[in-house]
Write a structure and sequence with these properties.
Layout: H1 3-31, E1 36-42, E2 57-63, E3 82-83, E4 98-99, H2 106-110, E5 116-121, E6 137-146, E7 151-166, E8 182-187, H3 189-201, E9 202-208, E10 223-224
Antiparallel strand pairs: 1-2, 3-4, 5-8, 6-7, 6-9, 7-8, 7-10
Length: 251
């Protein structure tokens, strides 16, 4: 056995040993368990618009560090918050799906920042036959009458407005239409002023939008309304002839 063969065999054995060592380290690294983290999930089915109680949530161990963004790690972080969606058992509770509760009705916690809630009176026509439900988007038409000219004009007052509640029902799980007496809308302060003024000057009408349609019209819709009523015929004026007296003057 020559010297060259011995050197090549030694190098081959060394490379084989190095490859086996690297493979063993890689397998051991894969076998290590991922670091677990705590995540708060729903323990039961939780309705929309309610304050969370400790009995409604639980903490589970989440493998790895890939938990959804905004997830909570302890019950204390979510108790007394208001749900903005319906939660199902074992569904992770995140920051974007709950809101802080600082007192008052739970509806106040569902209003977006810098917005206000205002209720408007409706009937079966204004309320689109009861098909407007919480979470829908509507346009608001305003009609103003000019009694002196017996005319009326209609324009699109506000567009893509969110419905917070119908009557005293704010749950978005409601599916069946019902005739309601009031609809609560989410408006900015200046929009609330506009709609209150419109209700004082005339009437309003709600129109239901497709949830996928968020496009706003650039120009308001104007509709000419009632034609002037025919004027009554003018009364006939009868002129009376003055009586003339004939006087005889003596010569």
């Amino acid at each position: 056995m020559n010297k060259r063969f011995i050197i090549m065999l030694s190098i081959a054995l060394l490379l084989a040993f190095l490859a086996a060592w690297i493979a063993n380290r890689w397998i051991q690294g894969k076998a290590l368990p991922d670091q677990a983290m705590s995540v708060v999930v729903a323990a039961v089915e939780i309705p929309f618009g309610v304050k969370l109680e400790e009995s409604q949530v639980k903490v589970i161990s989440w493998q790895g560090n890939s938990a959804p963004q905004g997830a909570y790690s302890s019950k204390e972080q979510v108790v007394n918050k208001v749900t903005m969606n319906k939660f199902y058992p074992d569904e992770i509770i995140t920051e974007k799906r709950v809101s802080e509760y600082l007192g008052g009705s739970t509806l106040s916690a569902l209003i977006s920042k810098e917005y206000r809630a205002i209720s408007v009176r409706v009937d079966d026509v204004v309320g689109v036959a009861g098909f407007i439900l919480p979470g829908n988007r509507v346009d608001i038409l305003a009609t103003k009458k000019d009694r002196s000219a017996n005319e009326a004009s209609t324009r699109t007052l506000l567009q893509n407005i969110k419905v917070l509640a119908v009557d005293q029902e704010a749950s978005q799980e409601k599916e069946k239409p019902a005739i309601v007496r009031a609809v609560t809308l989410e408006l900015k302060p200046e929009q609330a002023e506009v709609i209150v003024q419109a209700m004082q000057e005339g009437t309003i009408q709600l129109t239901l939008r497709n949830p996928l349609d968020s496009e706003l019209q650039e120009t308001p819709v104007k509709v000419a309304a009632a034609q002037p009523a025919p004027q009554p015929p003018k009364p006939t004026v009868t002129k009376r002839l003055k009586k003339r007296t004939l006087r005889i003057i003596p010569w």
